[in-house]
Specification:
Layout: E1 4-13, E2 17-19, E3 24-33, E4 37-44, E5 53-61, E6 70-73, H1 85-88, E7 90-94, H2 97-104, E8 108-109, H3 112-117, E9 122-126, E10 130-136, E11 167-175, E12 178-183, H4 187-195, E13 211-216, E14 224-230
Length: 238
C-alpha cells in the first residue's frame, strides 16, 4: 500500500517503551483520522505530537506490525534522530475535547470478546461503572540502586518508562460479557506519578467518563490495555 496523507487527532499517548531492535525509546499514539477512523501511529519520539492536537501527516503500513489499525510516519526523520520531523508533520490546531465523544462513539463495541472475534486491535467500550487504581508494579527497577556501581548506569530516557515506576495504573470495569481488570498505560497518568506520586489525584481527569479506549498487545492480541477515557453525550449530536 502506498503512503497516504491524512488529518490526525492525537487522543492518547502510551508510556514510552524501549525498542530493543533499534536501541531507542519511543511512544505510541492512538487517534482519530476522518479519512480512516481509529488508528495507532508508532513509533513517535518522546517529545512530539501532543494529545488533542490536529496534524496533517503522511503515513504508511508498518512491516513489523500487521494489525489493521497500525501505521507509521512516512518521514525518514526517525533514522536521523528525529531531526526535521516538524517539516513532515504539519500542525493544524487544537481539537475541542467535548466534541470527540460523538465522533468516535460509532466505533464502540459491547465487549472485548466481540473485539477479539472481529480481530480489532483498537476499540471503545461503553462504561457504566469503573474503578481506576494503583497497584504495585511487579517489573519495577529501582534506578537509585544503580548509583552503587560506578560502571553501571541507566540511560536518561528510562525515567519516563514504566519499569522505573513503582506503581502500575489499572482499570476495573464490566462490559456485556463479563468483568475486566486491565493495565491503564496512558502516559499522562505516569507523568503525574513521576512528578508527584501515585495518588488518586492522577485520575482526576478520568472521572465521569463513559467511553474507554483500549488497544491490544502486538504479540498477545487477546490481551488489552486501557489507553484513554472520553465522554459521550448523545445530545451533542443535535
Amino acid at each position: 500500500m502506498k503512503p497516504i496523507k491524512i488529518k490526525y487527532v492525537v487522543l492518547a499517548k502510551t508510556i514510552p517503551e524501549y525498542n530493543k531492535r533499534e536501541g531507542l525509546c519511543y511512544t505510541c499514539s492512538l487517534g482519530y483520522s476522518p479519512e480512516i477512523g481509529l488508528i495507532r501511529v508508532y513509533p513517535l519520539p518522546i517529545v512530539s505530537m501532543n494529545k488533542w492536537d490536529i496534524y496533517e501527516i503522511q503515513i504508511e503500513k508498518n512491516k513489523y506490525d500487521t494489525r489493521n489499525e497500525s501505521w507509521k510516519l512516512s518521514s525518514y526523520a526517525r533514522k536521523e534522530g528525529w531531526a526535521g520531523l516538524n517539516n513532515d508533520v504539519k500542525y493544524l490546531g487544537v481539537f475541542h475535547p467535548d466534541k470527540i465523544g460523538s465522533i468516535i462513539a460509532k466505533y464502540s463495541s459491547p465487549s472485548i470478546k466481540e473485539l477479539n472475534v472481529d480481530k480489532k486491535s483498537i476499540g471503545l467500550i461503553h462504561l457504566k461503572e469503573y474503578k481506576l487504581y494503583w497497584e504495585t508494579n511487579k517489573k519495577y527497577i529501582d534506578s537509585t540502586q544503580y548509583g552503587l556501581f560506578e560502571d553501571v548506569e541507566l540511560a536518561d530516557f528510562t525515567k519516563y518508562t514504566k519499569s522505573t515506576k513503582d506503581k502500575e495504573a489499572r482499570i476495573y470495569f464490566r462490559d456485556d460479557k463479563g468483568e475486566h481488570d486491565l493495565q491503564y498505560n496512558e502516559w499522562q497518568i505516569y507523568e503525574y506519578q513521576r512528578k508527584f506520586n501515585a495518588s488518586p489525584e492522577a485520575f482526576r481527569f478520568m472521572r465521569n467518563k463513559n467511553l474507554l479506549m483500549i488497544g491490544n498487545m502486538h504479540n498477545h492480541r487477546n490481551i488489552w490495555i486501557g489507553l484513554g477515557m472520553f465522554e459521550y453525550n448523545s445530545l451533542t449530536l443535535f
